[in-house]
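User: Hi! Is it possible to get a structure for several chains at once, not just one? Here's what I have:
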Amino acid sequence: MKNQKYKTILNYLILVISALLLWGIFTTPVDQNQIPYSEMKQKIRSGAFSKVKLTEKLVVGELKDTRTKGQSDKVEKEDSQKSKVQSLASSSKTLVSTRLDNDPELIKLLDETATQYEVETKNTMLASLLYTILPLLLFFMFWTFAFRKAGPGSEMMRFGKSKGKVKAESDLKLTFDDVAGQDEAKEELNEIVEFLSEPERFTRLGGKLPKGILLVGPPGTGKTLLSKAVAGEAKVPFFHISGSEFVEMFVGVGAARVRDLFIQAKAKAPCIIFIDELDAVGKARGVGAFGGHDEREQTLNQLLVEMDGFDSKVGVIIMAATNRPETLDPALLRAGRFDRQVLVGRPDLKEREAILELHAKKVKLDNDVNLETVAKGTPGMVGADLANVVNEAALLAARSNAQAVHMKHFNDAVERILAGLEKKKRVINKHEKQIVAHHEAGHALIAALKNSTDKVHKISIVPRGVGALGYTLQLPTEDRYLMTKQELLNKIDVLLGGQASESIIFGDISTGASDDLSRATEIARSMVTQYGMGKTLGPATVERERNALYMDQSGASIGKNFSEETARQIDEEIKTIMKDRMTMVKALLTEKLVILKEIATTLLEKEVLDDEQFQAILTRHGILGSSSAA
Ligand code: ADP
Ligand code: MG
Ligand code: ZN
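Assistant: Yes, the chains can be modeled jointly so their relative placement is included. Here is the combined structure:
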């Protein structure tokens, strides 16, 4: 409060002084006694002055023939408040002229005409002080005041400087032990750790080390974690900045920030600069929907300049992370930049278990918890999801006042994270429920009949999340890297099962199957265009990976490398596959109509069927469950 008052007073003070100063500037000697310099010299030459005073800025001549005293008194009274220079000048017996800088002629002239002259310095010093230093001082005061007013955390204060965040984190306690799995990535990064902890050992022999390492992988796989672990292992400072932070609203700020970051980093070498979301700055230049982004390009260019501009021997390692390497400007990936790429992929079964174990250390587990089973039930999940599963399980356990986290909490947590929160209260009418039940029963039955490798784990007609009204959860029995043609066809069949069932039972189809259909079509398309499984197109792949670099302004792929005729053939083949499969699936479901209806009825009654309940129905009808599939 007191401080505020002080500020206000200061504010007024500055205003008043500024006003006085301005007034002073505009009222400087401009009066009738002012004559041109040429005339002044003329007058000196003709000996008109009895005395001449030279100040720094002015030449003041006292005329020999003095006029009436009263007049000059009057003038002097008016000007009593002005400085001595001014009052001198405004006296009527004097004539004033602005002095030319260092005019040697003037002194010569005065000497020649034997005019009495003197040089005045005192006043000019005061004047110069008043007119040069004071404004500067005021300007400075005003400046700091304005910025103080804007607040210490405001954008104005940080203009062009790195945000507080870009300060180095110096004592990261993370090590490779805090990253479960990712053994290959760790192995590659270990070289960097060795270099950072002992740079001399490597550079002594003239070896060249990578400057830039790009971590590539889906979100949540531990890229940030790994880079911090590298810093922690090597015990070096860690500069962490996100690509999006570079791209500011003012053009040039991002580039300035990059410059500043590198200056700081070089001063702290050996160290690590980590640029998260590199794609935010590193997108290929001139590809944006609006014909490029000036600021981003400037920032990117500055980054390239900085990366080229230092020797890897200084010990600054630049790590970056992205989940969209294909969008990066190729210039970033050239030698001497991010030429080393480390894949940080989705964890497999063993790794998932390891990650779960790592995070479960922090919670109290009951003996019934089997993390291997949890890992089996979470294919496709990444480290961040699994950390979330453990946390969610612990929360569920706490909510039910359990002494420890049980297996059922883990199961619920997995489900919750897999399918979104249950929305039991959501009302769907009876008919809708019928449709959903038969739809899901169709998926499940086809999956069972086809001995699908993806075992039916759970069928539910409890609406979840936003769009899904029901779901059939199939989990792969193992992590798969290859699929046969038959397996792909099975996948299509299972996806079509829902709509086929609806059409058999109700003679009509609903909109609920659109996602199934698009996924099935996508599989069929890949079969034809990528895997060479089509009939007419044979074993050739006809479609390139879509690459952002080849996108035109409208975002459409212009990299198509096949003809219209081929395109037509592709469409034809996809249509044939889909039609054939649908006919087959409908026939199969019609044949097993009794079972289909029983599954649907049970679903309507229980809302959720688990693995065992589902198998029971199948066994009762003499169908061996998918568990017996080879
Ligand atoms: P990314 O940067 O790849 O998006 P993060 O490094 O931010 O992923 O991971 C987010 C969180 O997920 C981490 O803080 C960690 O808790 C967890 N996590 C991810 N991967 C792993 C892993 N391999 N081991 C242990 N925890 C992991
Ligand atoms: Mg990250
Ligand atoms: Zn469906």
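The longest helix spans residues 122-150. The pocket of magnesium ion (ligand 2) is lined by residues 223-224, 276, 321 (CB under 6 Å).

User: Great, thank you!
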